[in-house]
Prior knowledge:
Largest interface: A-B, 54 and 53 residues
Radius of gyration of chain B: 25 Å
Mean pLDDT of chain A: 84
Distance between the termini of chain A: 59 Å
Order of helices and strands of chain A: HHHHHEEEEHHEEEEHHHHH
Oligomer: heterodimer
Shape of chain B: globular
Amino acid sequence: MAVATPALAKRPPPWRNVRVRRWALQALFLLVVVAVVVWIYENLTDNLRAANQRTDFTFLRQQAGFAIPDPGFSSADTIFQAFLVGAKNTAKVAFLGILLATVLGVVIGVARLSTNWLVRRAAAIYVETLRNIPVLVIILFWYLGVLIRLRPLDEGSDILGLVNLSNRGLVLPWLDRTGGTAVFFAVLAVAAAAAVAAFLWRTRRFDRTGEPHRRVLWAGGILVVGLVVGFFASGMPFGLSLPERGEFATAGGFRLSPEYGALLIALTLYTASHIAEIVRGSILAVQKGQTEAANALGLTGFQRLRYVVLPQAFRISVPPMANQYLNLTKNSSLGIAIGYYELTRIYRISVAQAAPAPQATLVLMLFYLAFSLFIAGVTNLINRRLAIRGR
Amino acid sequence: MATRVDTIEPIPVPEPERPPTRRVPPQEWARENLFSTWWNSLLTVVFGAALAWALYKVTRFVFFDAQWQIVERNLRNFVVFHFPRGETWRVWAALFVVAGAVGLGAGAAATRREIEVEEGRAPAGGGRFLLVRRAVPLVLLVAVLLAFARSLEATLLVLAAAAVWLVFRLAGRRVPARHARWVAAIVFAALVAAYLTITAFGGVPWDRWGGLLLTVFLAVGGIALSFPLGVLLALGRRSTLPVVRWVCIVYIELIRGVPLITVLFMAAFALGFFLPATWDKPGLITRALVAFVAFTAAYVAEVVRGGLQSVPPGQIEAAQAVGLSPLRTTRLIVLPQALRAVIPGLVGQFISLFKDTSLVFIIGLTEILAVAEIATKQPDFLGQGLIVETLLFVSFIYWAGSYWMSRESQRLEARLGVGYR
């Protein structure tokens, strides 16, 4: 009996061939994407020419023509330099915000699992409230509702003449440079190197002998000695600068503007509520046997957290924490709503000053992408160091 | 002889044994939970004092010191802003349609859940007064709105809407499980009908919406339109075709790397440049919607990707073995399982979007947050520092909405059996 199978032996026609189909599909897809991009680009250049605007990025080299309250910037500088100042201000908020939000978030996350009912409840209420309100509302609340409604400068509160708090901001005592600082920084650098060396030495000694390492004490002590020696050896190059109240502004000291304060406080509180949930989840994810073992060894509650639970929880929590750090940095763009001079506000002013909007927006996005990539890179590095290997 | 088809008996799931509940007298409870150690006692005293003080301050402000007239007089602005007054009935009508549709869907879902519990496919849960407890944030929200409205008409209309919801919920309970597909279609059609009630037949186009109405529109419209796009992006990112994959990856990661406000600015200031000069330039609300869709789609894609990865590869291999084409494998085998797993994640995305709609304030639209700011600049309220009152009110609306949805999402997560297998 003859079985007719010649059809199977033949090569399939090209439109039934998987490889041909894959190539064709991808080519078609690419064609559509490129066509859309080209279409948008053509429209863009046409519209920009019609609006008498440049079609390239040379606007970045133009004079800014607007002022930013920053000592390093004048209106004669370029728009690109203005963007750099904005990036600096964004970084200022993001860096401190990440630090504070982490600390507060860990405290609240641990408090959510406290054995004390009141503490547990209070932490839960904090998290459930802050997490469910838009961060922009929180920013506006702190700025419009609290910080600029503080007493005006002439009746503002001076605390011991050291700190001045008013609706113009918070002024803290700061250091003034009064002499040459080269010797000071040289001594400080030597001390820092010595501190690191001492830290490593104590760690290695601890690993070998098991004696208490006290490495933080050692390193910190050396740094303090270095600071004191350097300060006197270089002829006391720093003086204390205290806030002095003038008629319209304070002189001296270090001033934190209410805009910066509101943005920092709001971002910290909001992000801390998210971090608290991550910390809580990570702690719960640490196997219960670990806690029980720690209890069996007779560790106190604090020791159990510090040496057993938190180190393991921290490992789990790095990737979601990184996400929150990214969010905080991106949310700092909302400073524009209260007039803080971060990237987005600089962009907004530039566009109002006739910088071409499409290109300016692209530059703005690139700046934030750079921030995101930087943070993602750093946290990836941390994650790789902390992740449990060999499993 | 006809073969007998055995109905597969569900495997009975044993009721998990619960530890016996311990009844302790209050002083015992306090000793265990508040004063177990000296450290705990200290915490209790310090925290208790601080909390009592905060509670006193807040209560005093909310019930005595706050000047709520600004919210009372602007309530209409908060809810619809410059929506034409003569057309307000359309919003009410839409509310009724939505109440009916949601009731129908909720009823059908409840029936379906009961069947699942009976068959042992889902954990039993809840307890007494579940429906009431679930609705607390929403009821609170409506109660506060009505308290500010002080209008008999509005109260009656809200009660009527609640009645419509209840009637349709009862109707939905009676829908047999095999018609679930139809229920979904009806709910979807009703939402479209609600939208048409407001816009069609001489109605008000969305470019003139404001207040809470705009907030809800941007959130619902944003998630509804970004969902299909997000699914496509997620599929593209998992595609075996390198070109498709890379285009999707670049889009998703670019969007996720920039803040939402930059995308909103792109839509507000630059979108007009991307379109041919001969086209009508879209209005600001449309532009905002475009930005939300473009932005949320990237996040939805990541959520859906998680679901796609959770589908066991054996499912796809089995589909291929049966001879399904790649398209049908995706549509019939992969997507149904993946999408079911990501519903809680999608709700989370919707909550984010709901909160993020406040950002349109910065590009000059008047959703509720903008109204909170504008109200303080009215001649009657100018310079009285009433921004705290309006911001508190707006925060409460956001809080009630997102808190309610996040609790529903947790319930859903439990119901879909995450960790129950």
